[in-house]
Amino acid sequence: MSTYQNNITQLFDIRYPIIQGGMIWASGWRLASAVSNAGGLGLIGSGSMYPDVLKDHIQKCKAATDKPFGVNVPLLYPNVEEHIQTIIEEKIPIVFTSAGNPKTYTQRLKEEGIKVVHVISSSKFAVKAQEAGCDAVVAEGFEAGGHNGREETTTLVLIPSVVDAVSIPVIAAGGIATGKQMLAAFALGASGVQIGSRFVATPEASSHINFKNLIIGSNEGDTVLSLKKLTPVRLLKNKFYQQVAEAESNGASIEELKQLLGRGRAKLGMFEGNLEEGELEIGQVAAMLCAIQPASEVVEEIWKEFLSSAEQLSKTITQQ
User: Are 98 and 74 in contact, with CB atoms under 8 Å apart?
Assistant: First the structure.
């Protein structure tokens, strides 16, 4: 067992400063509990859940782990108020919010003794999250999957900028799937990492096996930041993406893009496995993934590589 401690491991009472992203249609109780049991912080992704489904996942996660876990709440989805109430009633210790104003729920959650972390894509929003009372921020670079920042700031640029802008702990996200990438994030001032894409490619993720197989078979350039007029989202190229790209090149309006997107498009692709008509959200780092691995192996592999890479880097610097 590692004795490593920093402000993130202490904040969440976890062994490793590795947080699993709360991705829609992927992050159910099986994945969250597996990551928490392995020493990281598992997150249930509430964005794709009805209130009764979230409650069921929370209760199953409690039964599957005695370690801390949290819930990710994207503020742009329906049922947010019900989700917040469920989180309070179930005494969830940690909440990650995203895609909205952190002032909306942070104080209410903190009054219940809940740690609150907000996902941001710029230094400006990091400061707003700190002012709202958040305990930490996730600084998510342009490389990330799912909903993304319009600024298109890469992780390498974003992390040090956010670290300089706030005094609360910074968790790096976007383009991170290995221990070496985790070490790079720490060199930039981050205290932890949030990893999404690699955890989608695990047996415990609730996403469809067709989607997982497509991820591990993808190459560089197979994802594109799209739908910037709505909410920017990084997608794997498929028939639906090509329809979006064509509509955008023809100057489609916001309403036309909404109509094209329709309802249930992400569920169709990521959960039901329709690889042509579905919306397939994943990060650039998918191109580095080549196998479906258990979540516990992912956590251990990342941590061991982080430590060995740090040791090797230290030797390299000393020798020069």
Answer: yes
**Percent of the chain clearing pLDDT 70 (strictly above):** 99
In this structure, what DSSP letter does residue 198 have? H
Q: Are 204 and 294 in contact (CB under 8 A)?
A: yes
Q: Flag whether the pTM goes above 0.90.
A: yes
Q: What is the pLDDT of residues 289-308, one digit of tens each?
A: 999 999 999 999 999 999 99
Whether 173 contacts 138, CB under 8 Å: yes
* Helix extents (H) in 166-251: 179-187, 197-200, 209-216, 239-249
Q: Has domain 14-207+288-311 been given CATH number 3.20.20.70?
A: yes
Tell me the pLDDT tens digit for each residue of 206-223.
999 999 999 999 999 999
Helix (H) or strand (E) holding 105: none
Q: Which two tokens stand for residue 108?
A: 């209410």
Domain parsing of the chain, residue ranges: 14-207+288-311, 209-285
Tokens of 221: 């350039």
Return the exposure string of 132-159: e unless at least 16 CB atoms fall within 10 Å of the residue's CB, then b.
bbbbbbbbbbbbbbbbbbebebebbebb
Max CA separation in the chain (angstroms): 60
CA distance 288 to 87: 35
- Contacts (Cβ under 8 Å, ≥6 apart) of 207: 23, 25, 26, 200, 270, 271
